[in-house]
Specification:
single chain, alpha+beta, 36% helix, name from scop, 3 helices
């Protein structure tokens, strides 16, 4: 991020079932607080200025639009990798 850009942070929640939702969004001091709280709780962070700009247009509690599903899936996969976690596979087969 360059010195001329405003710090922006977006927090997402994903339950593994529904579309991810925006749970926090802010610029400047609010962004700093979102990042501080995320770090405090061990939430993985990823810097993507363009994606943050797109997500900042969404309202709190709003689902991620289908147009962004692929990029958000990549972000979720990234967070699993850097956290050393793997998602639990759901067994949808009938017995």
């Amino acid at each position: 991020m360059s010195e001329n850009e405003t710090l922006r942070a977006i927090a997402l929640q994903y339950d593994g079932e529904n579309a991810p939702i925006v749970t926090a969004s802010g610029e400047g001091a609010i962004a700093e607080e979102i990042i501080r709280v995320a770090r405090e709780h061990g939430v993985p962070l990823r810097e993507d200025v363009m994606l943050a700009a797109l997500l900042s247009e969404l309202e709190l509690g709003e689902d991620i639009p289908p147009l962004l599903y692929r990029v958000i899936a990549e972000v979720i996969a990234y967070t699993y990798i850097i956290s050393g976690k793997m998602p639990v596979a759901k067994d949808n087969s009938a017995a």
